[in-house]
Every structure is written in structure tokens, then in C-alpha cells.
Specification:
The chain is of the alpha/beta class and 305 residues long. Helices cover 62% and strands 12% of the residues. It has a five-stranded mixed beta sheet, with helices on both faces. Helix 4 links the parallel strand 2 and strand 3. Helix 1 runs antiparallel to helix 8, helix 3 runs parallel beside helix 4 and helix 5 packs across helix 8. The longest helix has 75 residues.
Length: 305
Amino acid sequence: MSSLKSLRTRINGIKSTQKLTKAMKMVAASKLKKARDIAEASLPYATALNAMTRSIVSNLDDVTQIPALLSGRCKREKVLLLVVTGDRGLCGTFNASIVRAVKAFLDTLSDSSSVDLICIGRKGYELLKRQHCDMISYSINIGTSVDHPAIAKEIGGRLVASFTEGRFDICWMFYHQFESLLVQVPIQEQLIPLPVDVADVGKTAGSVAGNLSKSEKNVVGTLYKFEPSSELVLQNLVTKNIEAQVLKAVLSSYAGEQGARMVAMDGATQSSDKILKNLSFVYNRTRQASITKELIEVISGAEAV
């Protein structure tokens, strides 16, 4: 049976840890509300840019006018993976689930494929570098909400430049889509070339809108006159669209990280309550047994006298 001193040490240690988990839960809850509001506010912007891109594609006269960032290349041998995770742990399987999805995707690629990784988030970089250090070409911390627009712009510009230089043929993005406090869904999404159907070229806005969501139809249904030309406008819009999709992923992942951490810390706090209850029971029983033993010794000594 454990001594009273060791039990007291364990109880005090768990109480100290419990204070930390409660504090981290409160901090995560505070960050979550702000992060969720920002992530939800960014969705209409990303959706509108996608819809505008399709709308402008329908205004083109010929398929050859579509930028390579939309039409892609014939070969798909050079693959770039953009992996978005968090900077910190203590958030359950949040970071590990994205890394598992990346590794599962790598297993599906042929041996002839050339793969590069760009990591947004320190944890994803640390987990992937153990086995795929040679594939990681760039990494950056996800930071706070203030940093996210600058990160999206930097990564978006880097992706466009790398694609233009022929360093990759297709880019996939892995991130968590924030659904609710308890649900963060791992997403694998094609980022470059942007998923736009070349069959939309020359179509009317109405026919293009038939395949879109309600929010996208509001954008596509609007008629525009382009100066100097639809082709030049589309080239600039595609870059902005890529940055917007990266920003959407970063904001959604950051909100999901806070939600996962809040749930994990709440679970840790509840578990510590159960452990404290059991240890307190053992401590009281041990203490009672010790007192009973001392009383018996005193009584036995008195009888001997």
C-alpha cells in the first residue's frame, strides 16, 4: 500500500496539472470564438472568388485563353502537398490525423512521382520531417489570427511562382474543415490547378450557374463587362483566388485547433477529477488504517503495563 506521503505528493501534482488544463481550456475557448467568427466571415469571400472565376471562364472565346493555373498540364508527375496543421500540441489527434492523411496519400503515388511538401504549422513539420525530411521544401508557423492573411499571401505567391517555373504539376492541400466544437473534418483539396471545368468556356452565365451552389449563383448570375479583357482579368483573379483558398484553409484549421484543444483539456480535467476522487479514497483509507494501527499499539502497550 502506498505511503501517505507519496499519496499526498501525487494528489498535489494532479491538482496542479488540473489547474493548467482548466486554464488552457479557458484560453482555447476565448481564442475559439474569435477564430470561428473570422473563419466563417472568410468563407463568402473564397466562395465568391471561385464563382467569379467560373463566370469569367464562361466569357472566354477559346480554351487556349485559360491560364495554366486553371487548365493544368498534361503531366501530373511533380506533386506538391500543402499541409496545414497547428503550432502546438495538447489538442488530441488534431495534428496527427492530417499527417496520417498525408502519409496515406503518399502511399498511393507511383514511384516515378516527385513529391515536395510545404508545411504551415510547426507540429505538421515536426511529425513529417521524421520520415520525409527530404521532401519538405518550406515550412512556416501558423501563428495567430493577425498573421494569417500575410501567411496566405506569401504561400499563395510562392505556389504561383513555383508552378510557373515548372517545379510542380499539381498541388493538393490538406487541412481541417471546422464544422463545430466537436467536429473537425480532415480535407484533401486540389488547389492547383484550380478545379474549374474547361467545358464552361463560351457558356452563358445561366448554364454555368446551374452547377453551382446558391451563394455562387448570386455571383455568376451577374453580368460584367471586362476591361481590358476577360483573359487578363482572369490571370490576376486566379492568383487572388489561390491566396483566398489558402487563407480559408488556414483560418478553418486554426479554429479547429482551438476547438480540439478545448475538448481535449475538458476531457483531461474530467479525468483528473476521477483520479483525484480515487486517490482521495485510497489516502483516507490508508490514513484510517494507520490511525487504527497506532491505537492498537497504544492499547496493547497499556495492557502490557
